[in-house]
Amino acid sequence: MARIFDTFLGSVMERGADEARRAGSATIEAEHLLLAIAAEQEDGTRELLDSVGLDHAALRDALEEEFRQGLAAAGVSFAGGDLPGPVGGRRPSKVGESAKRALERGVGPVGRGARRPAHLLLGILSLKAGTVPRALALAGVDRADLARRTQESLPDGE
């Protein structure tokens, strides 16, 4: 099982870096990891996200709305409603604080052999503040319920 998780994590980190680059971010953050998980072919986590209407496109829309509302709260608006596209850049290799916290909370306390993709999702869902919790709230997702169902999807004792 450890090898399967290592492959999953490697793929999520690669996709997360691509998501961060597309967003114009200098670091890989929790939202980029969540987008990567939504794009992964791993059945368990994808089904959990799908169950609350969060496929990759819906999640991207929620994150864009969170960004738009954050700018509006700061008094910034865009004529025509379109946000400018991200500035192209290099693929980030650094992991940002929100992604570090998600990894520590989800994967850190789990024994190496017991790690599963759902642990990473749990780590992301455990974040109490920041972009991901705000975007999930905007999407109408009950984060606590999704975390509970994610926990229940794990074998007993994990």
Automatic annotation (TrEMBL):
All copies of the Clp R domain together span 1-70
Identify the stretch(es) annotated as Disordered: 82-101
Recorded hits in Pfam families, A to Z, give: Clp_N
The leader peptide range reads none
Alphabetized InterPro entries for the sequence = Clp_N_dom_sf, Clp_R_N
Q: Which superkingdom, per the lineage?
A: Bacteria
UniProt KW keywords? Repeat
> This protein is called what?
ClpA/ClpB-like protein
Q: Which organism is it from?
A: Thermomonospora umbrina
